[in-house]
């Protein structure tokens, strides 16, 4: 099926499931770039007077290259449209032009930073004697540890939700730049919250599931050496910070066994997050 035909069928599904948004309802702010990957870009937009993140293929690359990210964008739409969890970026819907050329996801705008930048800000502020807090309000070492624990618990909650779906959902590219950290007012004080982003490489765990993508540094050890390989597909994050540079450099990645739905996600959130969140060092 050609591109127009595939997007045409997706449009029919969007109308039936009521997630298709009329383009006139969304105001794009293309100069306000929130994230950028090898082929995808996330910009700020406004949807019914509410800030949103707009994710779409980059327009400044060759058509053949831009076409590589479209399947990932369609896959992200297919996955996100059925997910509802407080620690997963919210999917409002998608817009599609009448010529079936442009697909754009309308996502929750998260006013925060990715986990890597959050940890680095903690480290920098601590070295400057500012209590380890990126907002420069004093935080004790106990506060810092509790904040980091909260972020890990938030991501574990999101993963438990994903892996308990039927069929199970595997994120497939769980890394520090695909987690956003935002501060919220709670009981008269500030509290951090972690949210999972970028489902372009996620998969429904069925026996016909396609090979997973992912970043080599965060991949489960048992997934190396498989005969079923596929390179990364670049894409922007939906947070207020830019994508990791790893999204533009391809790495082979195999498909997980249907009997172990969380092997890829668990390997990333286990020892790797323990290293970064606990010590502040990127694994």
Biggest pleated-sheet summary: 5 strands, antiparallel
Oligomeric state as shown: single chain
Give the uncertain stretches in residue-range form. Answer: 131-136, 227-259
What structural class do you assign from the helix and strand content?
Answer: alpha+beta
Question: Order of strands across the biggest sheet?
Answer: 1-2-3-5-4
Helix content: 25-40%
**Amount of beta strand:** 15-25%
Radius of gyration: 19 Å
Give helix and strand order, one letter per element, not per position.
Answer: HEEEHEEEHHEEEEH
Distance between the first and last residues' Cα: 41 Å
Approximate shape:
globular
Number of helices: 5
Give the overall average pLDDT.
Answer: 75
Number of DSSP-assigned strands: 10
Pfam family, one: Pkinase
Protein name: Protein kinase domain-containing protein
Keywords: ATP-binding, Nucleotide-binding
InterPro entries: Kinase-like_dom_sf, Prot_kinase_dom, Protein_kinase_ATP_BS, Ser/Thr_Kinases-Pseudokinases
């Amino acid at each position: 099926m050609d591109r127009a035909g595939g997007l045409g069928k997706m449009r029919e599904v969007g109308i039936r499931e009521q997630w298709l948004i009329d383009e006139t309802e969304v105001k794009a702010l293309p100069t306000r770039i929130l994230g950028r990957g090898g082929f995808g870009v996330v910009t700020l937009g406004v949807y019914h007077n509410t800030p949103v993140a707009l994710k779409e293929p980059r327009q400044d690359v060759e058509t053949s290259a831009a076409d590589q990210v479209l399947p990932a964008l369609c896959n992200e739409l297919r996955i996100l449209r059925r997910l509802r969890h407080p620690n997963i970026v919210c999917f409002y819907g998608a817009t599609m032009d009448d010529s079936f050329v442009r697909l754009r996801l309308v996502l929750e705008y998260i006013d925060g930073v990715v986990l890597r930048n959050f940890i680095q800000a903690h480290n920098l502020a601590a070295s400057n004697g500012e209590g380890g807090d990126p907002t420069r309000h004093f935080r004790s070492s106990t506060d810092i540890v509790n904040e980091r624990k909260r972020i890990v618990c938030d991501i574990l909650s999101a993963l438990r939700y994903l892996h308990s779906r039927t069929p199970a959902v595997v994120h497939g590219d769980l890394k520090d730049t695909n987690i956003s950290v935002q501060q919220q007012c709670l009981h008269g004080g500030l509290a951090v919250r972690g949210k999972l982003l970028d489902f372009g490489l996620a998969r429904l765990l069925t026996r016909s599931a396609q090979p997973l993508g992912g970043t080599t540094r965060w991949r489960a050890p048992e997934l190396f050496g498989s005969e079923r390989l596929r390179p990364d597909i670049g894409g922007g994050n939906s947070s207020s910070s830019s994508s990791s540079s790893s999204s533009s450099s391809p790495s082979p990645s195999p498909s997980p066994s249907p009997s172990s739905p969380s092997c890829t996600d668990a390997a990333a959130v286990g020892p790797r997050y323990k290293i970064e969140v606990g010590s502040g060092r990127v694994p």
